C-alpha cells in the first residue's frame, strides 16, 4: 500500500506511537543510571563499532558507591576508548553538566584540543602505573577550570577500565594566589618597617651629630646617603652668609669658587658610589670680604647595623693661610736651591781661585828663595871685598846692615807665605789624638833661645782636657804663633808669663792663652786677624801669624775670641768643636 493510501488519522497514530517509544527508552535509561549509582546493577551494555560491549562493576557494594558519591573530588571510570562508564555526581557538578550528559560520553570532549595529545600519553601510561597531570576543563558555560587528574587501572575489570580521580585546583590556586599576595604584602610591610627604622636611626644619628657639630669652631655638615646636604652648623651660615634654605640639597654649591664646582662634584659622586672617605680641597667664598679661601673638605659615612650608609658627616677647614705659606715656602725653597746652585758655583770659583792663589804663593815663595839667597850672598861678598880693600866706610856699613835687615824680612815673608800654603794642605790631613802638653814642649824647643833671653814662663793647666782630636801640625802652628807673639810683644816692666788652660764649655773645648804683655787697643777685634795686619811696629813681624791661627780654627769649625787691655796683656780663647775633638 502506498503512502497516499494512509489518511491523516493514520499519521497521527504513528507519531504518537514513536513518542511513547522514546519516552519508554528515556525512562529505561534513567532507571539504569540510577541503578548503577545505587549499586542495584553490576553490568552495562554499550553499543560500540564492533557491536555491543558489556561492562561489569565487580566488588562495588552499596557502601562503596555511597562513599564515591560523597567525595569532594570527581570519580570516573573510563574504557579503553576514553568513554565514561561511570561518574559520581560531584564531577558533573564541577563541569556544570547533568550526570546523564556525562556518562556514556567521551572524556576528550571536556579537554582543550591542544591537551589531547598530552592526555593520550597520560591515559596510556595509566594502564601500567599511576599517572598524574594538570589539565583545564571547559565547562558548559565556556569557563576553563584547572584540575588534577590521577589515573590508575582498575584491577579485575572486564573489559578493562581505568579509574580516574579529578581534583579541582581552583581553590588551591586561589589559596596560593592569596598566600603569594600575603607574602608580598608582608615583604612590603617589612621593607616599610626597615625604612622607618633606618629613618629613625638616621634622625637619631643626625641629631646626635648636630649637637656635637654645633660646638666646633669650623664648618661642619651632614648629608643624605646620596650627597644632599640636610644640615650645616652655625659656623657655615656665618662664614658663607647663606641661609638654611640656600644651603640644603645642592644649593651649597653657590658658595664654591665656580671653576672648582665641576671637579668637586665629580670627586664627591665617586666617593658616594664607593663609600670611601672624602678628602678634597676646594675654595669657598667668605661672606665678610668676598674672598675665596682654600678649605680641606673631609667626610666619613655613617652606617647602620646592616652596613648601609645612612648619613655622611663632614667638615670644612680653612687652610688658605697654610696653603699660602706652603706655596711661599716652596717658592723660597726653589729660590734657595737656585741660590745654593749660585753659591756652589761661586764656591767652586773661589776654590779654583784659592788653588790658583796657593799655587802662586807656593811658586812665588819657592822661586823667590833662590834670588834672595843670591842677593844675601852677593851682599856678604861685597862686604868682605870692601873690608879687604879697606874702603868700607861707616855709612856703607849702616847701608849694608839695612840691606841685611830687608833681606831677613823678605825671607820671613816668604816663610809666612809658605806656611799659609802649608795650612791649606795640612787641613785635609787625618786628625789624631794629640797631647796638648807634648805640643807645648815642641813649641818651647822651637823658641828656646827666645824664652831663655826673656826668662819667659809658661804655666800649663790642661788636666781637665789634656788631649785634642786634631792634626798635630795644625795645633803646633796655633800654639807656636800665639806663644811666640806673647813673648815678642812682652812688657819691659815685667817678666813674660803665659798661662795656658783648657776646659769644657757647652759643645766646645775652650783653650785659654793669657799673657801679661803690652796689650792692644781693639776698636775692631776682627781686624787683628787680617793678613799682614800689625798693631806694634817696634817689633819685627809680618802680620801673618794671627791670620794663620784663625784660618786653621775656622777650617776646623771652631772660633777664636780675643780680649786685651793696654799695659796689662791679652787673652785669646780658642773654641774647638767637640764633634772633632775628645775630652
UniProtKB/TrEMBL annotation:
<feature type="domain" description="PAC">
    <location>
        <begin position="278"/>
        <end position="331"/>
    </location>
</feature>
<feature type="domain" description="PAS">
    <location>
        <begin position="60"/>
        <end position="130"/>
    </location>
</feature>
<dbReference type="InterPro" id="IPR036890">
    <property type="entry name" value="HATPase_C_sf"/>
</dbReference>
<dbReference type="Pfam" id="PF08447">
    <property type="entry name" value="PAS_3"/>
</dbReference>
<feature type="domain" description="PAS">
    <location>
        <begin position="205"/>
        <end position="275"/>
    </location>
</feature>
<keyword id="KW-0418">Kinase</keyword>
<dbReference type="InterPro" id="IPR052162">
    <property type="entry name" value="Sensor_kinase/Photoreceptor"/>
</dbReference>
<dbReference type="InterPro" id="IPR000014">
    <property type="entry name" value="PAS"/>
</dbReference>
<dbReference type="InterPro" id="IPR005467">
    <property type="entry name" value="His_kinase_dom"/>
</dbReference>
<dbReference type="InterPro" id="IPR003594">
    <property type="entry name" value="HATPase_dom"/>
</dbReference>
<dbReference type="InterPro" id="IPR004358">
    <property type="entry name" value="Sig_transdc_His_kin-like_C"/>
</dbReference>
<dbReference type="InterPro" id="IPR003661">
    <property type="entry name" value="HisK_dim/P_dom"/>
</dbReference>
<dbReference type="InterPro" id="IPR000700">
    <property type="entry name" value="PAS-assoc_C"/>
</dbReference>
<feature type="coiled-coil region">
    <location>
        <begin position="322"/>
        <end position="399"/>
    </location>
</feature>
<dbReference type="Pfam" id="PF02518">
    <property type="entry name" value="HATPase_c"/>
</dbReference>
<dbReference type="Pfam" id="PF24820">
    <property type="entry name" value="Diguanyl_cycl_sensor"/>
</dbReference>
<keyword id="KW-0175">Coiled coil</keyword>
<dbReference type="GO" id="GO:0000155">
    <property type="term" value="F:phosphorelay sensor kinase activity"/>
</dbReference>
<keyword id="KW-0597">Phosphoprotein</keyword>
<keyword id="KW-0808">Transferase</keyword>
<feature type="domain" description="Histidine kinase">
    <location>
        <begin position="363"/>
        <end position="580"/>
    </location>
</feature>
<dbReference type="InterPro" id="IPR036097">
    <property type="entry name" value="HisK_dim/P_sf"/>
</dbReference>
<dbReference type="InterPro" id="IPR035965">
    <property type="entry name" value="PAS-like_dom_sf"/>
</dbReference>
<dbReference type="InterPro" id="IPR059127">
    <property type="entry name" value="Diguanyl_cycl_sensor_dom"/>
</dbReference>
<dbReference type="InterPro" id="IPR001610">
    <property type="entry name" value="PAC"/>
</dbReference>
<protein>
    <recommendedName>
        <fullName>histidine kinase</fullName>
        <ecNumber>2.7.13.3</ecNumber>
    </recommendedName>
</protein>
<dbReference type="InterPro" id="IPR013655">
    <property type="entry name" value="PAS_fold_3"/>
</dbReference>
Amino acid at each position: 500500500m502506498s503512502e497516499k493510501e494512509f489518511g491523516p488519522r493514520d499519521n497521527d497514530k504513528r507519531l504518537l506511537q514513536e513518542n511513547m517509544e522514546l519516552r519508554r527508552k528515556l525512562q529505561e535509561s534513567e532507571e539504569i543510571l540510577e541503578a548503577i549509582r545505587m549499586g542495584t546493577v553490576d553490568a552495562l551494555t554499550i553499543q560500540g563499532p564492533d557491536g555491543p560491549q558489556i561492562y561489569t562493576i565487580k566488588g562495588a557494594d552499596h557502601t562503596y558507591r555511597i562513599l564515591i558519591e560523597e567525595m569532594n573530588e570527581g570519580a570516573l571510570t573510563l574504557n579503553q576508548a576514553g568513554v565514561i562508564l561511570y561518574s559520581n555526581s560531584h564531577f558533573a557538578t564541577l563541569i556544570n553538566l547533568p550526570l546523564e550528559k556525562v556518562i556514556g560520553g567521551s572524556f576528550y570532549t571536556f579537554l582543550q584540543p591542544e591537551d589531547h595529545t598530552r592526555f593520550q600519553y597520560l591515559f596510556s601510561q595509566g594502564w601500567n602505573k599511576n599517572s598524574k597531570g594538570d589539565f583545564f576543563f571547559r565547562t558548559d558555560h565556556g569557563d576553563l577550570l584547572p584540575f588534577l587528574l590521577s589515573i590508575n587501572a582498575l584491577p579485575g575489570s572486564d573489559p578493562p577500565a581505568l579509574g580516574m580521580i579529578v581534583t579541582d585546583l581552583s581553590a588551591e590556586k586561589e589559596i596560593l594566589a592569596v598566600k603569594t599576595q600575603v607574602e608580598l604584602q608582608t615583604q612590603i610591610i617589612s621593607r616599610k618597617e626597615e625604612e622607618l627604622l633606618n629613618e629613625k636611626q638616621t634622625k637619631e644619628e643626625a641629631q646626635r651629630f648636630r649637637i656635637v657639630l654645633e660646638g666646633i669652631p669650623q664648618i661642619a655638615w651632614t648629608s643624605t646617603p646620596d650627597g644632599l646636604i640636610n644640615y650645616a652648623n652655625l659656623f657655615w651660615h656665618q662664614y658663607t652668609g647663606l641661609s638654611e634654605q640656600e644651603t640644603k640639597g645642592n644649593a651649597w654649591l653657590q658658595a664654591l669658587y665656580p671653576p672648582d664646582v665641576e671637579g668637586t662634584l665629580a670627586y664627591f659622586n665617586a666617593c658616594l658610589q664607593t663609600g670611601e672617605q672624602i678628602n678634597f680641597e676646594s675654595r669657598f667664598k667668605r661672606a665678610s670680604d668676598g674672598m675665596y679661601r682654600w678649605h680641606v673638605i673631609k667626610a666619613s659615612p655613617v652606617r647602620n647595623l646592616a652596613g648601609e650608609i645612612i648619613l655622611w658627616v663632614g667638615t670644612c677647614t680653612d687652610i688658605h693661610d697654610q696653603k699660602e705659606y706652603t706655596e711661599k715656602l716652596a717658592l723660597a725653597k726653589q729660590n734657595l736651591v737656585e741660590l745654593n746652585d749660585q753659591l756652589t758655583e761661586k764656591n767652586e770659583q773661589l776654590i779654583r781661585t784659592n788653588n790658583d792663589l796657593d799655587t802662586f804663593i807656593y811658586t812665588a815663595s819657592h822661586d823667590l828663595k833662590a834670588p834672595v839667597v843670591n842677593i844675601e850672598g852677593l851682599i856678604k861678598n861685597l862686604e868682605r871685598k870692601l873690608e879687604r880693600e879697606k874702603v868700607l866706610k861707616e855709612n856703607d856699613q849702616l847701608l849694608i846692615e839695612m840691606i841685611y835687615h830687608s833681606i831677613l824680612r823678605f825671607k820671613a815673608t816668604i816663610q809666612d807665605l809658605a806656611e799659609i800654603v802649608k795650612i791649606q794642605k795640612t787641613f785635609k790631613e787625618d786628625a789624631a789624638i794629640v797631647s796638648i802638653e807634648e805640643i807645648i814642649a815642641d813649641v818651647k824647643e822651637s823658641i828656646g833661645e827666645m824664652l831663655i833671653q826673656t826668662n819667659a814662663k809658661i804655666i800649663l793647666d790642661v788636666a781637665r782636657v789634656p788631649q785634642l782630636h786634631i792634626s798635630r801640625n795644625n795645633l803646633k802652628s796655633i800654639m807656636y804663633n800665639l806663644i811666640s807673639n806673647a813673648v815678642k810683644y812682652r812688657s819691659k816692666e815685667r817678666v813674660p808669663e803665659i798661662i795656658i788652660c783648657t776646659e769644657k764649655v757647652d759643645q766646645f773645648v775652650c783653650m785659654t792663652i793669657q799673657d801679661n804683655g803690652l796689650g792692644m787697643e781693639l776698636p775692631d777685634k776682627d781686624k787683628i786677624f787680617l793678613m799682614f795686619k800689625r798693631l806694634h811696629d817696634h817689633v819685627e813681624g809680618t802680620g801673618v801669624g794671627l791670620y794663620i791661627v784663625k784660618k786653621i780654627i775656622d777650617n776646623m769649625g771652631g772660633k777664636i775670641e780675643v780680649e786685651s787691655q793696654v799695659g796689662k796683656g791679652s787673652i785669646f780663647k780658642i773654641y774647638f768643636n767637640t764633634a772633632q775633638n775628645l775630652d
